[in-house]
Write a structure and sequence with these properties.
Blueprint lengths: L16 H10 L11 H11 L5 E5 L5 H15 L3 E7 L2 H8 L5 H26 L2 E6 L4 H14 L4
Parallel strand pairs: 1-2, 2-3
Length: about 160
């Protein structure tokens, strides 16, 4: 949500066309440097979704404090819906974490990158415990990974 307004909403629809609609609706979305309103988003969705639905939340997993609120709201939504939390991991951050430092500055960069990735892992684990399916992928792999996960969940009769 941006303030009190939804950033996007697709009413639930059955069939394969739903995936194409989701991808088309999210294709041109741009990240915004705003504090997310997860409680408002969950309340908004609870008023619109009467039947069990797949709820896809595209967000960043960078801030542990914000992630705690996200986990609380995921737990509320997951009582009745399948919640898929989707985030993009920064490939540069992963590359730094995997690098072999050549000097002290490189060692500090690597340590910081490892710390950020460890925090992301902790956030993912917390969201999973709250009932979410979590997808955290590099930007170029978002669409195929999202479609693949959707098809996997559908094949397992979770959607």
């Amino acid at each position: 949500l941006v303030g009190a307004e939804p950033g996007g909403y697709l009413p639930p629809r059955p069939g394969r066309a739903a995936v194409a609609r989701l991808l088309a609706a999210t294709y041109n979305l741009e990240p915004q440097p705003l504090q997310p309103d997860y409680a408002g988003a969950a309340a908004y969705l609870r008023t619109r979704l009467r039947r069990r639905s797949l709820v896809v939340l595209l967000t960043d997993l960078a801030d542990p404090a914000t992630a705690r609120e996200l986990a609380r709201q995921v737990a509320v939504l997951a009582r009745h819906h399948l919640v898929l939390v989707v985030s993009q991991v920064d490939p540069a951050l992963v590359a730094i974490a995997r690098s072999l430092p050549e000097d002290a500055a490189g060692a500090y960069r690597k340590a910081a990158a490892l710390e950020v990735l460890a925090a992301r892992e902790e956030i993912r684990a917390g969201l999973s415990r709250a009932g979410a399916v979590v997808l955290d992928v590099p930007p170029g792999q978002l669409a195929p990974a999202l479609v693949s996960r959707y098809l996997e969940l559908k094949a397992r009769n979770r959607v």
